Every structure is written in C-alpha cells, then in structure tokens.
Amino acid sequence: MTTEQPTPAAALDAAAAVSRLFAEVFEQLADWRAPIEQAIAPGIREIASDATVGEVRPAELDQVVAGLVLPLLVEPEPRYVGAGFIADGEIVRGRDVHFAWWLGPLDDNPVLGSTEAPTRLDLSTRGYTEYLRDFRSLEWYRIPSTTRQAHVTGPYVDHLCTCDYLLTLTMPVHAPDGERMVGVVGADVTVRRLETELLARFLAADEPLALVNADSRVVLSTEPSLQVGQLAGGAAAAIPCDGTPFRVLVSPAAPGRP
Questions:
Q1: Hey, which of 12, 74, 101, 226 has its CA 20 to 30 A from 124?
Q2: More confident call, 50 vs 2
Q3: Are residues 25 and 118 in the same domain?
C-alpha cells in the first residue's frame, strides 16, 4: 500500500507567488485598457456588422498610451521591458497596422545597444518584421480575439527587440459597443525579471521546482538539467498557479525522462 505524499508547503507558496505576480500584471493591463478605450471611442464608427473602421488619429493615440506606460518603464527596477497598445489597423487613420509600443531602457542589447531612455518600437527600422503585417494570426493577438480573455504567450525568445526570453501578456481592447475587439493592450516581462521576483521562493523548497506553461515548457527552474524553453518530463506533483496557465512541478524530470 502506498501513501500519497503531501505537497510541500514551499511549493504551494511558490505557486501562490506566481499567481499574485500575474494577477498584478493583469490588473495593470486593465488599468491601462480603460483610458485607451475612452481615447479611441470618439474616432471609431461601425459600417457593418462584421467590420469596425475609424478615424483614430495616431499621434493622439500614441500620446495617451505613452502617458500610461512610460512611467512604469523608467522605474528604478522596472517589471516590464516593454508595453503598449497594438491597434487593429482598420481603426487608425491611414494605417494598416499601428504599434503604440515602447521599450524600456536596455543594457547591452544586441539590436539597440545600451539605451538610457525608453525607445519607441519603429517597425520601419527593424528587419524581419513583415510577419507583423499579419499580426492577427500571432498568438498574443489571436487568442484574446477568440477567447475575449487576457492571455500569456511564452516563454519565447524575442528576436525583434530584446533578444531575450520573455512572456507577453495581452488583454483585449474593445470598440464602444463593448463587444468588438479592436486591439490589445500588453506588456512584456523577461524571464530574468521573473527570476528576480520569484526564484527565492522556489529555492526555499527542499525539492527542485520548475515553473512550466500549459505545454510543460519551462519558464524557470531550480532543477539544473531543466533550462528555460525546454519541455519538462514527469514530476512528483504539479500545483496549478490559480489565474494563470502555469504550474509548479515538484521534483521535475529532465528532458526525455519520465
């Protein structure tokens, strides 16, 4: 007869910390969403049941979004490496795609070098950005447009800007009818930043722990054989992180092992 071992308290504490952190980010996105929806509402008109077009002025939209996100990007120890609003091109005058998105100061970035102030994401100066023309098919936009819920994409390597592992959190922004999605508000959080905020709780456990996404891809781990982005094997226990797609694995197996 076997007896199921109780879940270690430190692992439960780590899972709770993950839930709290992502709840705070989602609350921040919601705080940004409301003024963005107010700003775009006067410039949106509906011409058909399946289309929303508008005359939102890009400069005015950018001013609103910058006022919301820039203060958090220049904090002494910012949680976000990038943030902003990505608008469906049909609502912005003269644009087929509009990114009101900024990056915080960067240290020795392979693309931008070291920057001391926020940088506006300018697609015209980036190589390999053609895929963004079909941004509606990308996970960070496609899933919120389907579920009407906030979503976490990643971990993945951001080759466009940071060249680092990160998670992108996005939330739908709606037209005045409250139903039609016309863009997403979002923020990027690097895995290194997550480690800064969460790793101490993971190290407090006697057993190795790993934070994985819904596909069992590792976000962070105290098991040396598990690296960011790898798929984790079996585990002694899996603890859901409420309100997120993540789980904390207790004593996770190395890749390829049961």
A1: 74
A2: 50
A3: yes
SS3 145: helix
- The reply to whether 159 falls in a domain is yes
**Same domain flag for 82 and 205:** no
* Residue 53 predicted with pLDDT over 60: yes
End-to-end CA distance of the chain: 22
Q: What is the pLDDT of residues 69-114, one digit of tens each?
A: 999 999 999 999 999 999 987 788 776 778 999 998 877 655 555 5
- Token digits of residue 48: 């058909």
Q: How far apart are CA 23 and CA 18, in angstroms?
A: 9
Segments forming the whole domain that contains residue 130: 20-71+78-193
CATH number at residue 93: 3.30.450.20
Residues 151 and 218 in one domain: no
DSSP 3-state of 102: strand
Measured distance CA(251)–CA(220) in Å, rounded: 13
Q: How far apart are CA 65 and CA 184, in angstroms?
A: 12
Q: How many residues does the chain have?
A: 258
Q: Is 60 in contact with 39 (CB distance < 8 Å)? A: yes
Phi, psi of 32 (to 5 degrees): -75, -35
Give the Cα separation of 38 and 55 in Å (integer): 14
Q: What is the CA radius of gyration of the chain?
A: 20
In single-letter form, the type of residue at position 253 comes to A
User: What is the rounded distance in angstroms from the CA atom of residue 185 to the CA atom of residue 218?
Assistant: 25
Mean pLDDT of the chain: 87
Inside any domain, residue 4: no
Same domain flag for 97 and 141: yes
